[in-house]
Amino acid sequence: MVLVKESLTPRSSSWMASRCPKHQPIIAFFVIFLAVISASAAVSTDKRIAARVQRLNKPSNKTIQSPDGDLIDCVPWHLQPAFDHPKLRGQNPMRPPERPSGEDTSSKPAVEMQTWRNTGEDCPEGTVPIRRTTEQDVLRASSLRIFGKKPAVTTRRNSAAGNHEHAVGFANGEFFGAKASLSVWNPSVSVSAEFSLSQIWLISGSFARDLNTIEAGWMVSPRLYGDTHPRFFTYWTSDSYERTGCYNLLCSGFVQISSKVAVGASISPTSVYGRRQFDITLLVWKDPKFGSWWLELGSGELVGYWPSCLFSHLAGGAKMVQFGGEIVNTRPSGSHTSTQMGSGHFAAEGFGRAAYFRNVEVVDWENSLVPLSGIRVLADHPTCYDVGTGVNRVLGIYVYYGGPGRNTMCP
C-alpha cells in the first residue's frame, strides 16, 4: 500500500501541474467577467432607482419636517406626479363637483389628523403637500417594477408574495360613491413584507382580467413606508393590480388639490382599546357632470380626484362596494401570520374593542347619499379575522371587523 501511494502521488501532482495552468486563466477570466457584469448591473439598478426617485420628487416651494421623520414637500399644483400621465398632461384642475345631497358638514369641526400638521406649518396656496420618496423607500420593495403597488396574490410562480385575507361588509348593485367613518388603530404587523389596512373599496369589472378599483383608508405597511405608523392612503387599478395604478402619488393618475392633506402621511391620534375611539370620515363619489371620482376627508376637505379616463368599467358606476380590513399573510403554508387586522380583536367584542365602520352610506344615481341596504359579510379566514354588521341609533349601519391573526383557533 505504501508503494501504491508513492506511485500515485507524483503522477497526481504531475497531472495537476500540467493541467491547472491551462485552465486557471480561463477561470480567472470568467470570475472577472462575472464581477464586471454584477458591478454593471448594480450600477444600472442604482441609476434606475435614482431616476425613479427624481421623477417622483418634484421641485417644491417649501419643505416641512414632520415629527415622525417624514419630509413634506409643497409642490406647485401643476408639477405633481399626476400630470406625468399621457392622458393628463397639460390639464387644468377640475372644478369641485356638486356634493351628494343628504350630507350636512356645516356643524362638523375641521379634521387635523395628520402628524405633519402638528408643526403648525402649512403649504403655500397653489401647492400640494407630498411626502418625499427616498431611495430607501424604493430599496425596500422587492423590485422597481412593483414599487408602490399592492403585493400580488400568491401564485405557483410567486409563492412568496403572500395571500391577501379579508373581513368585509359588501353589497352588489349600481353605486356612484360610498361614505363611512372608520376607526383608526395601530395593528401589529408581523414581518415587513406584510401589511394591515382598513378601507372603502369601489369595484367594477372582472376579478380575473380587468378589475377596476378605487380604494381609500388607512394602513400600516413597513415595506412601503419604513415604519409602523398608520397612514392615510389611496389606491387605484384598472387591470386587476397588474400594470396600472399604485398607492398614493407613487405613479401618475390621482390628482391632488388639497393643500392641507398629504396622501401617505401618518395619522395621529389613534384609537385606544376600551377607551377613546378615533375615526376619520371618507367620502368617494362620482362627479355627475364630468365623471371623475372625488375623494373627501373629514369636514368637506377635498383631497383630489381620479379622472374617469384612468378606468374602463369605473368610467360608469361601481358594481360593488366593500367596507372592511385586509392583511397579507406571507406564510400561506405552515403557521398563520400573527399580523393583526383592525384593533387585533374580533368583531363580536363590539364598540371600543373591535375596529368599525359607522354610518355606512352609498351614493345613488341621483347623487344622493342613502343608507346602504342589502349588506352582506365575508371573512376569508373567520378563525383568524371575522366581520359582523348591524344597525343602531348611534352608529347607523355599521361594520365591525378584525382579529389577531394566529391564535388557538387559527394555528
From TrEMBL:
Superkingdom of origin organism: Eukaryota
Pfam families named among the record's database cross-references: Neprosin, Neprosin_AP
Stretches the record annotates as Disordered: 83-128
Signal sequence interval, chain numbering: none
Neprosin PEP catalytic domain boundaries: 152-411
Comp. bias regions, Basic and acidic residues: 96-106
Protein name stated in the entry: Neprosin PEP catalytic domain-containing protein
